[in-house]
């Protein structure tokens, strides 16, 4: 049974803000290809994130750092072709915006023009304010990302919960306010204490989407491959696995192999 607002033909930044205003939670998942995006869109997902996590789940890299702008555009093109309703956000990959607002603008414009996506997402707060402002000046919607920022993993040295200490928590709140004031329409908070995430969601007026940030935010995002049980080795505390697609697929493949070996496939009905 569909749980989304059926009267919304296409989700926009305006609808996301309205969802927060009326207390309706925002659903968000990752997508990297046409076939998966079509299923998620038809199921009624509000937001699809073409995440740089494609570097991990699609390409097998240890971190998100290796994926390129060209590769992100390629993944986004397939996703955009599949959707009728969902709002599509694309991560600006590592090295395409940090420290150079002109480069950030060029990267964002390439994503919007070449993929047809609806928004870009950047990691960081005050450090990237100039890039955010520059992108927004071109009319490109920007989603922020605070807390655990995977593109900075080598600086952090660990994927542990962020902002547990007061100084980092206060900076996160300050960065959230700054991103809102600069013009971001929403912010992802990743792997931070639930109480802090609640405080941020109550402090700023724009939607706050959590991943490992507790229930008191305006929406939730997960990596689809994790949520469906396709990736088995990544099982953090915040992940709820809704099915075991790895086992479902294994059973199907083994059934196919068995039928081929037994000369049971194809049958006469499956032949021309």
How does this model look, in words?
This protein has 272 residues and is an alpha/beta fold. Helix content is 42%, strand content 13%. It has 11 helices and 8 strands. Helix 2 crosses helix 4, helix 5 crosses helix 6 and helix 8 packs parallel to helix 9. The longest helix has 17 residues. The protein is globular.
Low-confidence stretches: none
Total number of β-strand segments? 8
The rounded distance between the terminal residues' Cα atoms is: 39 Å
- Arrangement of strands in the largest sheet: 1-2-3-4-5-6-7-8
Q: State the helical fraction.
A: 40-55%
Overall pLDDT level: 94
Beta-strand content estimate: 5-15%
Q: Which structural category fits the helices and strands? A: alpha/beta
Q: Give the radius of gyration.
A: 20 Å
Main beta-sheet strand count, sense and barrel state: 8 strands, parallel, barrel
Total number of helices? 11
Order of helices and strands: HEHEHHEHEHEHHEHEEHH
Tell the overall outline. Answer: globular
């Amino acid at each position: 049974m569909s749980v989304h607002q059926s009267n919304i033909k296409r989700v926009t930044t305006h609808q996301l803000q309205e969802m927060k205003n009326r207390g309706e939670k925002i659903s968000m998942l990752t997508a990297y290809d046409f076939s998966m995006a079509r299923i998620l869109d038809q199921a009624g997902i509000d937001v699809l994130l073409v995440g740089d996590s494609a570097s991990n789940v699609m390409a097998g890299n240890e971190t998100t750092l290796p994926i390129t702008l060209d590769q992100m555009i390629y993944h986004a093109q397939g996703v955009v072709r599949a959707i009728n309703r969902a709002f599509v956000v694309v991560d600006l990959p590592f090295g395409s915006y940090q420290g150079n607002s002109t480069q950030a603008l060029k990267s964002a414009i390439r994503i919007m023009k070449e993929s047809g996506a609806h928004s870009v997402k950047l990691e960081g707060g005050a450090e990237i304010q100039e890039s955010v402002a520059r992108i927004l000046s071109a009319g490109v919607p920007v989603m922020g990302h605070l807390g655990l920022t995977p593109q900075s993993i080598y600086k952090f040295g660990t994927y542990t919960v962020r902002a547990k200490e007061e100084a980092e928590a206060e900076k996160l709140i300050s960065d959230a306010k700054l991103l809102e004031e600069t013009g971001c329409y929403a912010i992802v908070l990743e792997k931070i204490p639930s109480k802090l995430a609640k405080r941020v969601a109550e402090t700023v007026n724009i939607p706050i989407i959590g991943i490992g940030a507790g229930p008191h935010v305006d929406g939730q995002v997960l990596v689809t491959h994790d949520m469906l049980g396709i990736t088995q080795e990544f099982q953090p505390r915040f992940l709820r696995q809704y099915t075991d697609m790895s086992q479902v697929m294994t059973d199907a493949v083994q059934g196919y192999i068995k039928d081929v070996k037994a000369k049971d496939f194809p049958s006469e009905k499956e032949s021309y």
